């Protein structure tokens, strides 16, 4: 995953390197949206089931730049139960009116209570913890098994679509890295490789959070649509 590195990062702002001109968003994403290998039935499913996913496909949205935070190596290094993650937890932050950088800085200030692998919004995919170690974001029962991605809240349809596009792309990328087939745990008693924080609480226990269900619902979105988008990217990812 080509990344930029946040440098000179204060408690208020990160400075992003510009991407190498050779590493265009289209190249980084494996030319997912423009690929001749895109399956027509996959696109038709997205069109039929989701106004958000249809907007993403119609507008050929690419994922945003990937930024690796230099502070991630200061976090606890906790070994996964099975040596690596077995799936991805889909989160959202649960509060309005806080931009991504505030959430990232806050996480590093309070990591002894909770921290996650990444935050995404409409403009950025910000990696905050090494994928090689588990994090504290979904309760003690699920934490040692999952890569975890937080979604920052948006306030118009276009920005929401861009943000969930980033969340879905990163989830698909991380599953692809480990050769993990996407399956939706929310519909299978918590068994699967894509699971909401809500389903973790319902089926795994150890947490009472219900994200991202309510926030997704504001935009007519749900975990089935998120899963469709993850699977679309996964299936078309080199």
Automatic annotation (TrEMBL):
Region called Disordered, residue ranges:
1-37
Alphabetical list of InterPro entries matching this protein: Amidase/PGRP_sf (IPR036505), Amidase_domain (IPR002502)
Query: Compositional bias (Polar residues) at which positions?
Result: 7-33
All copies of domain N-acetylmuramoyl-L-alanine amidase, residue ranges:
73-213
Protein name, as recorded = N-acetylmuramoyl-L-alanine amidase
**Organism from which the protein derives:** Staphylococcus lugdunensis
């Amino acid at each position: 995953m080509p990344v930029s590195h946040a440098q000179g990062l204060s408690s208020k702002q990160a400075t992003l390197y510009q991407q190498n001109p050779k590493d265009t968003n289209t190249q980084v994403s494996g030319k997912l949206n423009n690929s001749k290998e895109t399956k027509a039935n996959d696109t038709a499913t997205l069109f039929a089931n989701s106004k958000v996913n249809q907007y993403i496909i119609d507008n050929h949205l690419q994922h945003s730049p990937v930024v690796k935070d230099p502070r991630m190596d200061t976090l606890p290094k906790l070994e996964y139960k099975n040596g690596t993650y077995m799936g991805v937890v889909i989160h959202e932050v649960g509060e309005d009116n806080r931009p991504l950088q505030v959430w990232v800085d806050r996480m590093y200030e309070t990591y002894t209570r909770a921290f996650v692998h990444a935050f995404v919004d409409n403009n950025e995919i910000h990696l905050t913890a090494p994928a090689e170690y588990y994090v504290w974001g979904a309760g003690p029962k699920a934490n040692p098994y999952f890569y975890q991605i937080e979604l920052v809240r948006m306030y118009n349809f276009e920005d929401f679509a861009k943000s969930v596009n980033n969340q879905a792309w990163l989830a698909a990328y991380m599953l692809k890295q480990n050769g993990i087939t996407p399956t939706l745990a929310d519909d299978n008693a918590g068994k699967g490789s894509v699971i909401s924080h809500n389903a973790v609480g319902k089926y795994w226990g150890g947490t009472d959070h219900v994200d991202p269900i309510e926030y997704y619902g504001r935009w007519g979105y749900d975990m089935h649509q998120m899963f469709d988008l993850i699977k679309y990217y996964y299936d078309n990812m080199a």
